[in-house]
């Protein structure tokens, strides 16, 4: 892979035009994140946020009424 400056930017990546440049089978371009190895108590676990509109009684009643009217 070459640029307009005629020097390789990513010499380890395989370019279909250049058969000589390639990655070895065991190597990867992207690094593996280290937090996937195990559960870490230091990380904050994401929680689904509560939507106050959907949890309101008025919204539930309106949704129920709309479903009933749709079935008719």
Please describe the topology of this protein.
Elements: H1 52-55, H2 57-71
InterPro entries: FAM107
Pfam families: DUF1151
Protein name: Protein FAM107B
User: Which class best fits the helix and strand makeup?
Assistant: mainly alpha
Q: Got a strand count? A: 0
**Alpha carbon gyration radius:** 27 Å
DSSP helix fraction:
25-40%
- Shape summary: elongated
Mean pLDDT: 73
What is the makeup of the main sheet?
A: none
Count up the helices: 2
Low-pLDDT ranges: none
Strand residue percentage:
under 5%
Spatial separation of the terminal alpha carbons: 63 Å
Secondary-structure element sequence? HH
Description:
The chain has 72 residues and is an all-alpha fold. It contains two helices and no strands. It is elongated.
Features:
72 residues; mainly alpha; Protein FAM107B
Brief characterization of the structure:
The chain is an all-alpha fold and 72 residues long. The protein is 26% helix and 0% strand.
């Amino acid at each position: 892979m070459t640029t307009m400056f005629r020097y390789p930017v990513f010499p380890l990546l395989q370019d279909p035009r250049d058969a000589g440049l390639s990655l070895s089978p065991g190597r990867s371009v992207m690094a593996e994140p280290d937090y996937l190895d195990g559960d870490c108590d230091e990380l904050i676990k994401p929680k689904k946020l509560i939507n106050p509109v959907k949890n309101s009684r008025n919204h539930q009643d309106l949704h129920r009424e709309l479903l009933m009217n749709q079935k008719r």
